[in-house]
């Protein structure tokens, strides 16, 4: 296998030190006169998720470290094919085990429910003992390098169990963590973009999101075109809590800056993101939409929810995703990216303009595709999407 490695030399450039989300949240105000119930958003934005945020950031950062280590020197035996023919690597499993374990250690008093992409079925098959051991060593090495939980060394059984905690069905009641341990596994294998995407659902609403993007440049990738490897300092961590905005810092530092989506309202100046993999999204449909809107720049094709992260800081202003017929989107492919963009002032809907509903279990039920942009461009984007879809249908 030939792999193009991106150099991973992340030195923090950002100097503004803020402590977002440590500011005490406003108290809820109930008016006895009007008996008005607070809106769901007001209720969530008044809640504190400080502990959960700190735990999620720690978990995602350690998982990113594990993935970086594997990506630097991946072995043929580290990659397997799942029953749906999609790839999975020891880093996907290791990342899921780490995040699951760290969240449980950091939040011992909370009920733990995790909706995550991977499970241990293939790892329990005959002949998989070596892979189990490799994953376990990776997890233990990362924990040891961090100095956390030095009291406990995980066994292969602990690691398999931590992976299998991710079997929750999620839903509209209670709290559920939502994890994609490596989003963009194909990008990861190419040496390109990938993300560790972790979100928290509370009563069916995404209230917190952390997106670690180990290969995403710290500075803008605007106008980057379709790139395999990217120069300069890389490694970003985006995080958001409902009502608190979106922040980003380098994976090597904790000095965060607040980010905002682009305020461009002229589609001619807009650029758009889409999947690198043509099998994941209909590129012909996005190009027809871009043409209708008058977008001049070529699409920026990158893997994973790094697209949401890049859009949240204004590197591009539109993200279009139109899976081929029959594909069902999973909540872990969008939950963290969704809140990162929404809290940076962006809008995420399905192709018909409906909000995404993360409360229905492991899948998102949606109309045709997912579109993301800023508030100003959404009406014209929706119109272009509608027209292009109609034209595509009538041409069939
Ligand atoms: N046929 C398909 N259509 C749409 N998405 C697909 C797909 N096959 C796989 N995917 C999803 O696309 C994700 C990657 O998205 P992107 O194209 O933005 O990089 C994959 O996440 P994983 O890599 O976590 O499996 C996978 O869930
Ligand atoms: Mg996958
Ligand atoms: Mg994914
Ligand atoms: Mg994945």
Automatic annotation (TrEMBL):
<dbReference type="InterPro" id="IPR020550">
    <property type="entry name" value="Inositol_monophosphatase_CS"/>
</dbReference>
<dbReference type="GO" id="GO:0046854">
    <property type="term" value="P:phosphatidylinositol phosphate biosynthetic process"/>
</dbReference>
<dbReference type="InterPro" id="IPR000760">
    <property type="entry name" value="Inositol_monophosphatase-like"/>
</dbReference>
<keyword id="KW-0460">Magnesium</keyword>
<dbReference type="GO" id="GO:0046872">
    <property type="term" value="F:metal ion binding"/>
</dbReference>
<comment type="function">
    <text>Converts adenosine 3'-phosphate 5'-phosphosulfate (PAPS) to adenosine 5'-phosphosulfate (APS) and 3'(2')-phosphoadenosine 5'-phosphate (PAP) to AMP.</text>
</comment>
<dbReference type="GO" id="GO:0000103">
    <property type="term" value="P:sulfate assimilation"/>
</dbReference>
<feature type="binding site">
    <location>
        <position position="333"/>
    </location>
    <ligand>
        <name>Mg(2+)</name>
    </ligand>
</feature>
<dbReference type="InterPro" id="IPR051090">
    <property type="entry name" value="Inositol_monoP_superfamily"/>
</dbReference>
<dbReference type="InterPro" id="IPR020583">
    <property type="entry name" value="Inositol_monoP_metal-BS"/>
</dbReference>
<protein>
    <recommendedName>
        <fullName>3'(2'),5'-bisphosphate nucleotidase</fullName>
        <ecNumber>3.1.3.7</ecNumber>
    </recommendedName>
</protein>
<feature type="binding site">
    <location>
        <position position="180"/>
    </location>
    <ligand>
        <name>Mg(2+)</name>
    </ligand>
</feature>
<comment type="pathway">
    <text>Signal transduction; phosphatidylinositol signaling pathway.</text>
</comment>
<feature type="binding site">
    <location>
        <position position="183"/>
    </location>
    <ligand>
        <name>Mg(2+)</name>
    </ligand>
</feature>
<feature type="binding site">
    <location>
        <position position="117"/>
    </location>
    <ligand>
        <name>Mg(2+)</name>
    </ligand>
</feature>
<dbReference type="InterPro" id="IPR006239">
    <property type="entry name" value="DPNP"/>
</dbReference>
<dbReference type="GO" id="GO:0008441">
    <property type="term" value="F:3'(2'),5'-bisphosphate nucleotidase activity"/>
</dbReference>
<keyword id="KW-0479">Metal-binding</keyword>
<dbReference type="Pfam" id="PF00459">
    <property type="entry name" value="Inositol_P"/>
</dbReference>
<comment type="similarity">
    <text>Belongs to the inositol monophosphatase superfamily.</text>
</comment>
<keyword id="KW-0378">Hydrolase</keyword>
<dbReference type="GO" id="GO:0004441">
    <property type="term" value="F:inositol-1,4-bisphosphate 1-phosphatase activity"/>
</dbReference>
<keyword id="KW-0511">Multifunctional enzyme</keyword>
<dbReference type="GO" id="GO:0043647">
    <property type="term" value="P:inositol phosphate metabolic process"/>
</dbReference>
<feature type="binding site">
    <location>
        <position position="182"/>
    </location>
    <ligand>
        <name>Mg(2+)</name>
    </ligand>
</feature>
